[in-house]
Specification:
CATH topology: Aminopeptidase
Bound molecules: coenzyme A
Strand order of the largest sheet: 1-2-3-4-5-6-8-7
Order of helices and strands: EEHHEEEHEHEE
CATH superfamily: Gcn5-related N-acetyltransferase (GNAT)
Shape: globular
Number of helices: 4
Mean pLDDT: 94
Number of domains: 1
Number of strands: 8
Radius of gyration: 15 Å
Helix content: 10-25%
CATH architecture: 3-Layer(aba) Sandwich
Strand content: 35-45%
Structural class: alpha+beta
Distance between the termini: 30 Å
Length: about 170
């Protein structure tokens, strides 16, 4: 059965096709939202359909709701049950940012990864300029393992990235 996660203000459930139009409205042409992510904002709904496809059916792609409205998305990918590790990707729609939702959804997902998937290590990579993302990871207890200089290329520019890790063995 597909998991549904609840927090005091949020519901997280696997993405469904019916979510796409609302998802598209939230992110379309929002270059500010995607400035520290690897993709550009969609200008056409078919791009949103494409991005929502779970190409690797081991991944979890949660849509995040507050008061029945989509406010963001958080994905668990690169799940490795041998190494007991996984990697995260997430965003909160621009108009819903800085209200604590990012931290609240991160906390729920880390709890799910630890207690349901029973993994021991969670990683996330963050552009060095992305202060909000670094803040929520640090608040959640992730350790900053250091800077990888010029390791990510986006639209012809090379960016520095911090690698974060939550070690659940400790
Ligand atoms: C990163 C992101 C998910 C955080 O979500 P959020 O809902 O805004 O996060 P929260 O409100 O829980 O916390 C954000 C924290 O960063 C702080 N913050 C936000 N922008 C900041 C800035 N420019 N400088 C310093 N602090 C900043 C907020 O004050 C808050 O800190 P606090 O808890 O001490 O008050 C959201 O900003 C986002 O989606 N950004 C665009 C996509 C993205 O970067 N995704 C992550 C890729 S690694």
């Amino acid at each position: 059965m597909k998991p549904v996660l609840k927090t005091p203000r949020l519901t997280l459930r696997e993405i469904e096709k019916k979510d796409i139009p609302e998802l598209f409205e939230l992110i379309k042409n929002d270059w500010d939202l995607t400035r520290f992510m690897l993709w550009d904002p969609p200008s056409d709904i078919s791009e949103t359909y494409f991005r929502a496809e779970n190409k690797n059916n081991k991944d979890y792609n949660f849509i995040v709701f507050n008061n029945k409205k989509i406010i963001g998305r958080i994905s668990i990918r690169e799940i490795d049950y041998t190494l007991k590790s996984a990697n995260l990707g997430y965003w909160v729609g621009s108009k819903f940012q800085s209200k604590g939702f990012g931290y609240e959804m991160l906390k729920a997902i880390c709890h799910f990864i630890q207690h349901d998937l029973k993994l021991k290590k969670i990683t996330a990579e963050v552009f060095s300029q992305n202060i909000a993302s670094q803040k929520i990871l640090e608040k959640m207890g992730f350790e900053n393992l250091g800077l990888h200089e010029k390791c990510i290329e986006k639209n012809g520019i090379w960016y520095d990235e911090y690698c974060f890790e939550l070690n659940l063995k400790k």
